[in-house]
Amino acid sequence: MTDAELAAHLAEVAGKILIQVRTSGMFEGKSLGTAGDQTANQFLVHALRHQRPDDGLLSEESKDTEERLSKSRVWIVDPVDGTREYGEERTDWAVHVALCVEGKPEIGAVALPGLDVVLRSDAPTAMPPAAAKPRMVVSRTRPAKEAVAVAETIGAELIGMGSAGAKAMAVVRGEAEIYLHTGGQFEWDSAAPVAVAIAHGLHASRVDGSPLVYNQSDTYMPDLLICRPEWAERVLAEVTRLED
Q1: Which CATH fold topology does 3-120 show?
Q2: 81 labelled ligand-binding
């Protein structure tokens, strides 16, 4: 099984496990989110340790160690991206599985189990036509003020959505043109979505235009922009103007 096939398979199976946990009737609310996180993480970590024992591994739900920093190949996973949405039985949550090589997100798979969809870096689909008026996905509960300000300047429609993976995949799926985030995330929030977005021909960078680099000792990532290429220069310029 290739790395890309493994990533897609693990994301899909983890998603099915999460749906089973949610429909079991044994958990609800916060306890459902906790049970889902733990169950999916156990599956992903054990599978990757077995299938790729020589690679490094970083997961949101496992204790981080310095071991991965000496590895050129590192798997970065988020068992449930959007635990709140998962617990509320919404569809805007995701499972992330990425392989980063020398800090670059080379391979990624993002499962949207609530929609029964898996988007893969090795199987890009044709991008639908862009909307005449740009649409920007933002947090449904705490949209970043910079994103709101940029949206107002460029005349974009704001679309509130849950997880980072769901928002990034909305751009990949043609449901939005721009995903601008300045509220801070961690490597597992964006590694797989960025790999998938780049494979689909989208722009992905920090908001200063620099590349997104993974497998760092500090896993915090302050910001990112995923968008259609034709919007990248304008959005980056507007963010810079706001900071001046």
Answers
A1: Fructose-1,6-Bisphosphatase; Chain A, domain 1 (3.30.540)
A2: yes
Q: Which runs of consecutive H residues, i.e. helices, occur in 24-57?
A: 29-51
Element (H, E) at 203: strand 203-205
Give CATH for domain 135-243. 3.40.190.80
Tens digit of pLDDT for each residue in 85-143? 998 889 999 999 999 999 999 999 999 999 999 999 999 998 888 888 999 999 988 88
* 244 has binding-site annotation: no
Task: Retrieve residue 156's tokens.
Answer: 């974009």
Rounded CA-CA distance 127/110 in Å is 17
Is 189 annotated to bind a ligand? Reply is yes
Which single residue is written with the structure tokens 């044994």? 26
Q: Dump the DSSP string for 100-128.
A: EETTEEEEEEEEEGGGTEEEETTS--PPP
